[in-house]
Amino acid sequence: MAAQQASVDPMHQFTIEPLAGASNWELAGYNIAFTNSALWMAITAIVLTVFVLGGLRRELVPGRWQMAVESFTGFVDDMLEANIGKAGRKYLPYVFSLFMFILFANILGLLPLGVIGLHPFTFTSHFTVTGIFAIISFSIVLIVGFAKHGFHFFSLFVPAGTPLPMIPLIFIIELVSFMVRPFSLGLRLFVAMMAGHVLLEVLSSFVISGANAGIGTGIFVGGATFILMIGICALELLVAGVQAYVFALLTALYINDAENLH
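The structure corresponding to this sequence follows.
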């Protein structure tokens, strides 16, 4: 019975729940409940805003905070210049905000706040959220492409030197590949974050089951699993940063297609 009560549902952590009695809030027939997902989006936005504003002091001798903000800004700026060129500078505010927001969201979702009764929610583990990020980036690509090149933007789907008989087939293949981009962009982040959290939750169930099975099993099974969890947590921190970088990098590459038709 004790083992059954201590069982862990690895998918429960992804449940979106309304907060503060907001389940019946409606606007024009649509439910607008304030959920745990929305709460952690707001927390992420506040923490990111405080972080950035704290680094805008422009001190003669930069402190660690200012250096951290400038380092992140320079990192994203260099990435945009390397992939888009000088024209990438105008996209710095968007790509920087996107990169930092995803990074902070991923890291906040990994904090062990459960020990103080506060359970973080990783909203980047939901495809509805990552999909919206991808749609926004894809919309920028379309707007820039058509605004700068007009219908010549469609030449992106016909590589130079394509034989004339092959143009219709290549055009369709390239167009489908292009249209799949927002789906793959959002899916990559969603899967990476969801898989990591599920793995940690499953491992935690091994620790609980080992402790319930007795001292010997708890030491050999639960202890070994707990050590493994520490390593997985370190790996998840790396994944949190890598996924934010990959999302920003792919966004830059897609914008480069719109800017330079490459």
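The longest strand covers residues 26-27.
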